[in-house]
Design goal:
Its main location: cytoplasm. It catalyses: a UDP-3-O-[(3R)-3-hydroxyacyl]-N-acetyl-alpha-D-glucosamine + H2O = a UDP-3-O-[(3R)-3-hydroxyacyl]-alpha-D-glucosamine + acetate; a (3R)-hydroxyacyl-[ACP] = a (2E)-enoyl-[ACP] + H2O. The protein is α+β, with helices and mostly antiparallel strands. It is built from 9 helices and 26 strands. It folds into 3 domains: about 120 residues, Ribosomal Protein S5, domain 2, CATH 3.30.230; about 170 residues, lpxc deacetylase, domain 2 (lpxc deacetylase, domain 1, 2-Layer Sandwich), CATH 3.30.1700.10; about 160 residues, Thiol Ester Dehydrase, Chain A (Roll), CATH 3.10.129. β18 and β19 form a beta hairpin. α1 crosses α2, α1 crosses α6 and α6 runs parallel beside α7. About 35% of the residues are buried.
């Protein structure tokens, strides 16, 4: 069944103070057209800068997820985005007259209620789902964090946390039906932190908008009445603090496992930064904003690569990223100087692998050498350069309007001759980027798994209408 994109039917607003900045802000949700996506708009800044809600614009993850573009920032977006994604909204304008959304009660429920009040409507364009068709993994050995996305024609998340604290212990939860479970089972779960974190954050001048009404505080160390009085003053509270069942004050849990449910809420918000709804089974152990964002980057890169392949490769072929027809749509080279037949592996920003079938019909064999045909080493290097060009053009710019000029070739070595009947496997790895348009790469050519040639390249990305000397 084809699902249509969704937006809201009318604009609605919510006001309050931000969790960390303590600044007043009014946030207004507005309908957006098809394929607009989710964008935050700072209406209090000159020019009303727009910040797309995708992981490319994440600028800080120290205490929540912060988006930025130029000098414009929006702090702590995860709860808002969780509500938007949880309600399966695809296109939305989120205007703010401040730097941080209102914290509400520390959950996503205030935003959910406002969006439901606005009404959710279908649009004319089908949703652009990213279907995860291979396992994607993130592992942080130091912090014992693991996140995995497995192929599934649905959206499910299972999370486990273990903070080795008696008041919290090990907890796990799972969301198996976004439409049926999110609003009632996860949106009300409030943010939580340990008492030691509260003291540290307050000392750093953070959580200026935090109080006992918008966070669950877990007591993780001994504290006496004098300490509670000092904390009351530090947090500018007007009532005395108490400790009940390992939690600060009388703020009872909404769910027995409310902390881990909030972790799942956060993860939905952070993964919304992929910029497209996904179909996958997500398994996560001890996730946090940093890990969530790094994982979202991996998934978004996969999405961009799939879009890229679809743009040039019209017919899907097993084991092939780009066939020769796609390559000719990408590279300007033609006979007799097109020296790559297919691309079999592509990792955007990282690596490309291509194939060149060497036959006796190659025109250079007429003179190199008569009676003993050997592929010229300079043409093997050229083949590596062409494969590298595919990686650069499709990773960073629009190939229709740019060319790759190679500026230098270093440390070129030729290990074995290449003859008719050989199949060259051409590998190129991106090593470094300077100024967004100068690139260092390392290439290697193999025949039957044996290294036959290698070289290092420097290249520049040049608009077609410009001349190289301008760079």
């Amino acid at each position: 069944m084809i699902e249509q994109q969704k937006t809201i039917s009318k604009e609605v607003s919510i006001s309050g103070i931000g969790l960390h900045t303590g600044t007043q802000c009014t946030m207004t949700f507005k309908p957006a057209p098809d394929n607009y996506g989710i964008r935050f708009v700072r209406v209090d800044l000159g020019g009303n800068p727009e910040i797309p809600a995708n992981v490319d614009y994440v600028v800080d993850i120290s205490r929540g997820t912060t988006l930025g573009l130029g000098d414009a920032r929006v702090y702590t977006v995860e709860h808002v985005l969780s509500a938007v994604y949880g309600l399966k909204i695809d296109n939305l304008i989120i205007e703010l007259d401040g730097i941080e959304p209102p914290v509400g009660d520390g959950s996503a429920m205030p935003y959910v209620e406002k969006l439901l009040e606005a009404g959710i409507i279908e649009q004319d364009t089908p949703k652009d789902y990213l279907v995860i068709d291979k396992t994607v993994m993130y592992h942080d050995e130091e912090n014992k964090i693991d996140i995995v996305a497995l192929p599934l024609d649905d959206y499910r998340i299972t999370i486990m946390v273990d903070y080795e604290n008696p008041a919290l212990g090990s907890q796990h939860t799972g969301l198996f039906d976004l439409e049926k479970e999110y609003v009632t089972e996860f949106a009300p779960a409030r943010t939580f932190c340990f008492l030691s974190e509260v003291e540290s954050l307050a000392d750093q001048g953070l959580i200026k908008g935090g109080n006992i009404d918008n966070a669950v505080v877990i007591v993780d160390h001994e504290i006496n009445n004098d300490d509670l009085k000092r904390l009351k003053k530090k947090l500018n509270l007007n009532h005395d603090l108490t400790i009940i069942n390992g939690f600060l004050d009388k703020n009872q849990l909404r769910f027995k496992n409310e902390p881990v449910r909030h972790k799942l809420l956060d993860m939905i918000g952070d993964l919304a930064l992929i910029g497209v709804p996904i179909k996958a089974q997500i398994l996560a152990a001890r996730p946090g904003h940093k890990a969530n964002v790094e994982f979202a980057k991996k998934i978004r890169q996969l999405y961009q690569q799939k879009k890229l392949v679809k743009k040039f490769q019209f017919v899907k072929k097993e084991g092939i990223v780009f066939d020769i027809n796609a390559i000719q749509r990408i590279l300007p080279h033609r006979y007799p100087f097109l020296l790559v037949d297919k691309i079999i592996h592509l990792e955007m920003d990282k690596k490309v692998v291509g194939i060149k079938n060497v036959t006796i019909n190659e025109p250079f064999f007429n003179g190199h050498f008569p009676g003993q045909p050997v592929m010229p080493g300079v043409l093997i290097v050229e083949a590596l350069a062409q494969v590298s060009g595919i990686l650069l053009l499709n990773t960073f710019t629009d190939p229709e309007n740019h060319l790759v000029y190679f500026m230098s070739i270093n440390n070129a070595k030729f290990r074995k001759p290449v003859s008719p009947g050989d199949q060259l496997t051409l590998e190129a790895d991106l090593v470094n980027i300077k100024g967004g348009k100068y690139f260092s790469l390392k290439g290697a050519a193999f025949v039957d798994g044996n290294l036959v040639a290698e070289a290092e390249f420097m290249a520049a990305m040049v608009p077609k209408e410009d001349k190289l000397q301008q760079y």
